[in-house]
TrEMBL record:
This is Fructose-1,6-bisphosphatase. The keyword Hydrolase applies. Keywords: Hydrolase, Manganese. One of its GO terms (biological process) is gluconeogenesis. Pfam families: FBPase_2 (PF06874). It comes from Tetragenococcus muriaticus 3MR10-3. It is an enzyme of class 3 (hydrolase). One of its GO terms (molecular function) is fructose 1,6-bisphosphate 1-phosphatase activity. It comes from the Bacteria. Its EC number is 3.1.3.11.
Length: 92
């Protein structure tokens, strides 16, 4: 009886067997994506500027992505990173 309930639920959501398989493939692909960066920061009392900088630059991961994208070009990586971290200040 339980299996019949599952089949009924699947039929309500998916039009055919191929759409079920496609959804399973998509969900499997999502599960295999790399895990996002986690930050563990403690004792930040009175250190707003340093904390803000860590958040803006993603602990260096933003600059690493810039290097990946513009590795072989004449782009000033540090200048572009500063523009991304502090757009208001840099544009002034």
């Amino acid at each position: 009886m339980k299996e019949e309930n599952y089949y009924k639920l699947l039929k309500e959501i998916f039009v055919n067997k191929e759409s079920v398989v496609t959804e399973l493939i998509n969900l499997e692909a999502i599960l295999r994506l790399p895990k996002g960066t986690e930050h563990f920061i403690s004792d930040v009392h009175g250190e707003y500027d340093a904390f803000d900088h860590v958040l803006r630059n993603g602990s260096g991961s933003v600059k690493e992505k810039i290097k990946e994208c513009f590795n072989e070009t004449e782009v000033d990586i540090d200048d572009l990173a500063t523009l991304i971290y502090y757009p208001e200040e840099k544009l002034n």
